[in-house]
Amino acid sequence: MNFRRGRSREEPEINLVPLIDVMLVILIFLMATTTYSKFTELKINLPTADAEKAATKPEEIEIAVTSNGTYAIQGQRVNFSGVQNFAAELRRVAKSPDPVIVINADGNATHQSVVNVMEAARIAGYGKLTFDTQAPQ
Predict the structure, then answer these.
(1) Adjacent-strand bridge partners of 77
(2) Percent above pLDDT 70 for the chain
(3) SS3 state of residue 137
(4) What's the predicted TM-score (pTM) here?
(5) Rounded to an integer, what distance in angstroms lies between the CA atom of residue 116 and that of residue 90?
């Protein structure tokens, strides 16, 4: 039983005017409340250094220790006859009062061989020691 025979049904339509009005009000509100900040760069005055660069590289004395316990200073083989004699040999080779002692020991060298070189450097009065290493391949 359809009582509405002669009347056609109207399709509902969306009225866009109120939607546009609301969007315009929101846009105006956002524009009015948004703060625009200008990003400025930092103005930093860096300090300057007046120190002079090191004029010369410190003297290095290279000491090689092989796995069988032989020693070489600056590539010249040296007979080890005691820590005191080795310290005297270091003093003889050194050209500056406080050189850097570079110990280049074989991986299979005994611990005592390296300690002998360190002790000789201490007796000679050289406190700057370093070890040469090799990166694993």
Answers:
(1) 72
(2) 85
(3) coil
(4) 0.58
(5) 12
